[in-house]
Amino acid sequence: MLKNNDMGNLFKFCTGVSKLDFYPFTEINNWKNLGYWLLVLKPYIDRENSQDGILESYHFCEKSNTFEATVCLKATWQDGTPISSFEAAMGIAKGLAHRKTSCSIQVKGTEEITHFGWEKKHYSGVEIISPIKFKLTLTGLVENIKGVLEDILSFTTLRNIIWPVRLNSFTHPIYDPSYFDIISKYPIKFESGKYFLSVLGNLVELSTLKSKINYDFYFNTFDFNQYKNINDSEENYLINKKQNMHTFFAIFNSLSEQFSSIESRKKISSILRNIAKNSQEEENIILANGHFEANEPGYSQNIKWDEDNFDFPEHLTEIKIAIPFPSAKNMVLKKFAAEAEKKFINIKWLDLSDEENADTNYDLQIVIARIQGNRQIWVQNIINSHSFIQQLEKFPRTLSALKKINLNSASTFPLKSNLLNEFEETCHAECSITPIFRYHLHTYSRKNLPIVLNISEFKEFYFSLNR
Prior knowledge:
The chain contains eleven helices and 21 strands. By secondary structure, it is an alpha+beta fold. The longest helix has 17 residues, at about 260-280. It is globular.
């Protein structure tokens, strides 16, 4: 614990990323970015407490395809200025134009909203009723569009977070990191190259992985185990063990010569699952029965993924494995690398959170994504990712199943079970996307601190007083 004479206690929150990025409309490809965004950004819709969202109330009319909302009087910008209905409306309209929402949902007449001077243009689908009320007319008729809108306006998916937009500033945070033009749960300040939150009378530094000591808060077990101090143990922390399930799976690159044969893919898949099976107790993970469990849409009792093989393909000499961030290389992957080394196979790790590796070719990509309320968010993330689709180019059945989900179900909540079932079966038949294990997302707070890091039912991070 550090002491700041002006602001009280100073603590460090391990965000799990190598850098912090506060630029609106950036695709959040790495779920670790949510480690700070879910803590900082106030959502348009807060499902647990409407008063904590930007919108106090909202209504969708399916007949007219319109979304009408009232802005919460408590919603203010970082400097305390109340947000206007015009700003809130344009934030949604511009956000929909920038983000993929698994279907063509846009605000009517906003074709030029991404062009220079967009804030001065007139859009036929935007109606400002009063300083705190607005109505949006949408294009794209989909099943259960209200569910879609609630989904993209709250923190329930990884990619489809709509950002509020302030119209009186064009400052780009990449060039001016001290500027915060956002609606934040906690006031942010930038000082000496670091970001601080003002939380219940304390300061919390949003630390990156470059700061490897004295973390007081973590939001997942992998980072805790990898970046905690040498003498630290779980006994020193309060652990929130709410059931926030994540899935850990692998996508084979169909363009990789190493895995052009299904036999090779099946062997590697089985080895990964074998290691996960034998590591369940010590690693606090659960072997994934398939992409879907018995109580989830898409489950097929006819599918059984193999975990009995431990023989590497004979022709392999090197495997390039892409990971989303450094700490994703957990003990299962490290054990896999150790087994490969015994067979004189070199494992080359490519960290995709490093921009230099963004366009690098690899044989296998490890993916971590959330499962929430029988919602298979990770399936939507695959659909929305151009890079994933490229990887699956030569897996025609898998791609076809994904396209069916996109056309017929991606904008329906929950996703349609029969289409997910088809997706599971084709992934298994082609051995294109392999389920490995699941685990629960825990938050860690050092004991005896005045504040505690929590995670809500809807996956939002927040601090509360330690009572």
